[in-house]
Amino acid sequence: MFIDTNFFIYMNTPTKTLDRFIEHYEVELSNNRTFTNMIVLDELIYVSKKKYSIPVEVTLEFIDSMILPFTSILPLEENDYHVLKDMINYCPKPSDALIASSMKRNSIMDILSEDNDFDKVPGINRRWLAL
Predict the structure, then answer these.
(1) pTM across the whole model
(2) What are the structural domains, with CATH classification, of the chain?
(3) What's the sign of the alpha-carbon dihedral 72, 43, 124, 81?
């Protein structure tokens, strides 16, 4: 299971649904191997600070304590660019095309994401929480 930025942002942001996201993360960890990549971590740090005013240090601590111990970080490779050129037809954001490329290269078919652009990518199954 690949975990997208928006899921981690909800976990990093104090809201009334925080407990629901943490519970779901625990379920995913007990039932699946979980993956993400550096694009997701970059977006998590940036959006948490810009949109939610969460200090970078808080987000880095969140990554260190809640993501790195449990979720594998997939590397990006030169070949991801070549796959991105095909994925950009399905994912208008280059960062999402890189995520799709990273998933395909690692034979990961499922993504936990609120972003319905992933519904258009052949071979990728998007899941989200029923809140």
Answers:
(1) 0.90
(2) 2-127 (3.40.50.1010)
(3) negative
